[in-house]
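Tokens in:
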């Protein structure tokens, strides 16, 4: 039997397995089975903790519910940082991902509760970095569906497109999200954000996540939404992003790095028989 931990950041939930010790192979098929909410444990992403190597406390590998690998996940980064900080009795952790190293530090809110501020790295604005299928202005993509149009794109270690909409609740996100995720303009598919600007320091956001669908929160999507809103002059470079699961504070620094601050929580722990899942 293998221990696991179920964690979440604002309802964006993860099954965390410690692969720093020997585990049976976690293939894409097995990852998808574990993520299934009826036949597995159920999660938005499966997280594997692997040895970090020099300069990092841990390597975080991310599997989507369809078994594909993701490059970045802001909410999972905070959860893993909280877990590692507890192991090391430290307020600072470096989480390594395939998209780069993400330093995270513990803060506390006015009630003394832990918050985690992650440096998600630089927002990448060139069309090659997103990536897009051909050269174009990432501030205005020629893309439309279901009553939304003219998104801005950037990479936060994974591809994002943000549509700015007047009324978020009027959209059929479950219908238009899949079509936009798989549009040929995105050779590696994309996370699709739908943002409503409330004022220069506040956005509402819903995200159709690549390989996962609608989730209660998307940390990298919140970062991308703030960057794209600020690029268009719709907000300042620091704003609260309200997602269905709660609020994140996002800051796009002048050096290009994006800081994300929010909570992390453990829902429960348990054990599972990995060999009972297909491989």
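Residues out:
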């Amino acid at each position: 039997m293998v221990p696991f931990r179920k964690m979440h950041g604002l309802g964006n939930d993860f099954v965390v397995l410690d692969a720093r010790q020997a585990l049976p192979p976690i293939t894409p098929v097995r990852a998808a089975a574990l993520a299934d909410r009826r036949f597995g444990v159920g999660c938005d992403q499966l997280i594997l903790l692997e040895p970090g190597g020099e300069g990092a406390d841990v390597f975080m590998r991310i599997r989507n519910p369809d078994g594909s690998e993701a490059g970045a996940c802001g909410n999972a980064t905070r959860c893993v940082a909280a877990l590692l900080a507890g192991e090391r009795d430290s307020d600072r952790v470096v989480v390594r991902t395939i998209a780069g190293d993400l330093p995270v530090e513990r803060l506390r809110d006015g009630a003394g509760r832990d918050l985690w501020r992650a440096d998600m790295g630089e927002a990448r604005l060139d069309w090659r970095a997103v990536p897009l299928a051909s050269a174009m202005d990432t501030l205005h993509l020629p893309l439309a569906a279901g009553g939304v149009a003219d998104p801005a794109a950037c990479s936060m270690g994974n591809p994002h497109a943000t549509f700015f909409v007047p009324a978020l609740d009027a959209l059929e996100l479950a219908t238009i999200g899949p079509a936009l995720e798989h549009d040929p303009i995105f050779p590696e598919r994309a996370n699709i954000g739908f943002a409503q600007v409330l004022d220069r320091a506040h956005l509402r956001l819903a995200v159709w996540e690549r390989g996962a669908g609608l989730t209660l929160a998307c940390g990298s999507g919140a970062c991308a939404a703030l960057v794209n809103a600020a690029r268009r002059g719709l907000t300042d470079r620091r704003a609260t992003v309200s997602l269905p699961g709660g609020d994140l504070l996002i800051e796009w620094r002048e050096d290009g790095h994006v800081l994300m601050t929010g909570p992390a929580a453990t829902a429960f722990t348990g054990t599972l028989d990995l060999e009972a899942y297909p491989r």
